[in-house]
Amino acid sequence: MGRKLRMVAVRCALSGLTLLLLSAVVFAAGQVLPGDVGRSILGPLADARAVAALDHQLGADAPPLLMYARWIGHLLQGDMGVSYAYRSPVAPFIVRALGKSSALAAVTLALVVPLSVGAGILAASRRGRWQDRLVNLGGLSLTVVPEFVSGILLILVFGVWLRWLPISANTRPGTGAPEQLRHLILPALPLVLVLFGYIARITRAGMIEALDADYTRTATLKGLRRSQVILRHVLRNALLPTITVIAAQTSYLLGGLVVVETLFRYQGIGSLILTAAHGKDYPMLEAGILTVGAAYILSAILADALVAMLDPR
Amino acid sequence: MTPLERQIIDEHRAGRLSRRMFLRHASRIGLLAALPAPAAALGRPGATVRVASQVPSGALEPLTVSEIGGLAMLCQTGEFLIFDGSDLVLRPSLATGWTPDADCSTWTFTLRPGVKFHDGQAFGAADVVATMDRLCDPRQGSNALSVLRGVLSPGGTRRIDELTVRFELDAPNGNFPYYVSSDNYNAIMLPANYAGDFEANFNGTGPFRLERYAAKQGASFVRNPAYWGRAALPARTEFTFFTDQQPQILALEDDQVDAIVQISVQGAQGLLRDPDVRIIDIPASTHRQIHLRCDQGPLADRRVRQAIALCLDRPGILHGLFQGRARLGNDSPFDPMFASTDRSVPQRRKDLSRAMALMNEAGHADGFETTLTTERQQEIPDLAVLVQNACGQIGIRVGLRIEDPGTYYGTAQFGRSDWLDSAIGITDYGHRGVPNVNLAAPYLSNGAWNAAHFRSAEYDRLVAGYIAATDLSAQRVLAGRIQTLLLDETPVIIPYFYDYICATGPTVTGVAVSGLSQIFLQDAALS
Amino acid sequence: MTQKLFGSFSRKRTSFLFGLLVLAFWVACAFVGPFVVPQDPYADDLMNALAPPSAEHWFGTDQIGRDVFSRVIAGARPILSVAPAATFLAALCGTMLGLVTGYAGGWVDTVLSRLVEVILALPLIVVALLVLVALGPSSLNATLVIALVFTPIIARTVRSAVLAECKLDYVPAAQLRDETALHIMFVEILPNVLPPIVVEVTVRLGYAIFTVASLSFLGFGIQPPSPDWGLSIAENYGLIVGGYGWTVGFAALATASLVIGVNLVAEGLQDAAR
Q1: Residue B174 needs a FRET pair 20 to 30 A away by CA distance; which of B71, B360, B417, C196 works?
Q2: What is the pTM of this model?
Q3: What is the ipTM of this complex?
Q4: How many whole angstroms separate alpha carbon C80 and alpha carbon B99?
Q5: How many CB pairs under 8 A join A and B?
Q6: C247 and C175 share a domain?
Q7: Least CB-CB distance to C242: which of B267, B313, B320?
Q8: What is the domain class of B46-77+207-284+500-527 according to CATH?
């Protein structure tokens, strides 16, 4: 157990380093963004003197290194900075957007995990049959279709033509949870389609390996029923790589959010980043991207920990 | 009666001024007795009116707001000295009257008595002085500076007594009341001790007061029981912010909201056909300016600029991009709906053979290559493609560069802005009740927004004369000469002025709007 | 049993051939499409804007009256220029990098692995957005960004293949013959690691198409007035609610068929390489 703990600690330290590197990269990229902060707040027709005055008020005319140092300093104290555009702290925006994105991601995972794991198990148990090929080829083909493409087609079919699902991801404040969920299904589906293939394939491979493994044969020889064998031995081993893959796919999921949230005009972290990039709102942009990076790294650590816990070896 | 007043009444009697135009001019010089009494509000009081609005893209600071989401918010609790309605007639709001001196270089305003801010302070001359000084102070980051520069300076607003202020202008200005009306959207009256915290309390004088504001999400307002005027009909209003048009349309069709502050024809074609939706469509002077750089390359030749302007199929554009909800532009900021516009100046039409001939004369029979730079905003990319195709007809090969608005405007300084430095560009210009602001900065030889790099001493002289002109006939004579000059020189192409469109549900009545995306709900009701 | 194997094989062949056919169709469109389409894909016709599909306009017309069918066919060219160019560039750089790091090993190896990890810590779209907001959106910049991100990924694949090769007899043998490192890498090892490289590059091509399309949709890829599919969808998807689905539906189907086609080909090649 001590070894495992140390491993996790090293992992966390490395991740922190990666995050710091990331923040520097993001900040550097932000420095070469064209445009002007004061200008983007005051609008194109504002007087140049007014823009200069506002830039100075906001501290956007300080030397880059100083701005970076200030920002990191505040960040370490838990202060994400003040949005240039909204002149109010960034953190509440990030938290709210993260909440919305998490809801979307949760709906996505809630749909994709049972679907794809089930499909993977089915494919493995019908190896070589048409079900197997369908899951394999179908899943793989869907994986490469960009989210906005499948999104458009899903909107056209389920939203416009059949009218089964609401097109808009947004609901009025005060709407009940079931209705909110219903509005999230269509936006979640493109993400589900992209993730489905990967997870199903890995589950299938893991299942096949486990089914062929010695312990399975031993268990079967011991006279256990097939369902028991699968539940007790096969699944436990087969799902380990699946967990890793789900965690690895979080990165795709987060990237997909930018596209899906744009398509469905859903104000999550993805659209927050896009808007901040357009508006040259550095504090917001940096905090948003770092949050995405942190979310990815965190999910990877979690998956590692989970695998370490479940791994019988 | 002053000579100016008598002249306007005479023009009206002689039939040279329609009733509508007469009202506009009478109201401009403070001749308010002529205004019809406001109609009584219809509908049941007490409703909650739900509105979909574009999300304000930044902090709601009255001094700096410039985009439609923010404008719609400011006018919920804030009021102006004068209200400029959709008919461009000025109506008293916090000012009850205004009169110019003989040459219109000084204007005296009488303020409404008994007005209170939402925090209980009384409204008076000191508040007007503080608000106006803030708006024209270059050190404050004021967005209104682009309107007020050269018109009013800090210190120019004087308190005469508690309910009288006098504006001493930098130069005579016959249309000054528009500069302190709702047309100058930053000019809501704030208390003299305003501390820059509008977003926290929305402290104004209006018929609604803030209930709750959440940045990027929405806002709600409740009836102000202490309002100076007739109490608002709705008990409550509720604004939800959206980043885009499509979800707003869905929300309206889904009965989640009762109104959408502003819709553009692009993407709303279905809504405009929907019999269950009421469309409020008012003419506005909102337009796109296609500038052609007059100081370099083939475009420096006036004939080439004219040739390009002759290639555009304007009626086609009106139909294709706006389904007719727009008016033809004639390559000057004089919208046909302005009273001073000289409508006898002939409209420019598509004429390819004339365009080819001009290209030949200019020595560009084989055309040339150039680049059109513009911003990704509403229908502008489509217009850019149409201009590109139009130029192709006379051999001008146009490359497109379509950028984010921030990148396009850059620092908005010459040499550091794609907008001001590009050979050809398309720029959005908002609605104004009078053309004054749009005549100056975009065209004057030293104009800060002169992307066309147009230099004409003759033009500068005509505009100075126009702005100072007090009576309508003089304005119209000068307008005609400005229009003709701009047509001849063609530093810009203005293909259209498009309508402001607001959509409401079938049961909603009494919603008032202005061409600046301001929405006024005090008379709104649901039936 | 033989029958079953054969059946499976031929079915696999079928999907490979199907993918190849779709890909070939779009490649043909990319080359000759603009010359054979019924109407000029760029020409506007404002009086016929947003016309529904008809005999004259098979897929209808868009916002400014351009023929959607012609634009969908002509739209194969921009995406099939940018994505393969980016992939090719990445393959070139990635192979070199992979060969060198695999053969040389040591600290180069560590640096490369770190780099890949940092790059993979952010979604590709976010990285690309960040760079493109800074550089300005254009086809060229999109190509470069995608190539930049794919290079270390391809390098990693090549490296692991090279590592495996280095354990085989012929590499030490060549070293004993005093062959130069360059000779060993490019003449001895490269031909042997080509199959996994080809597979990896085909897979990457699929992702490149995915990414280019997504970037164009977000406004950071191919620019107007190109008939590019992602761009067309971005320009017109606001019209869906109004019932003008044809302005985006066909471009979406075209994009989907292209990526699936490439993917089936990649899958077939992968099987063959095994």
Answers
A1: B71
A2: 0.86
A3: 0.85
A4: 68
A5: 131
A6: no
A7: B267
A8: alpha beta
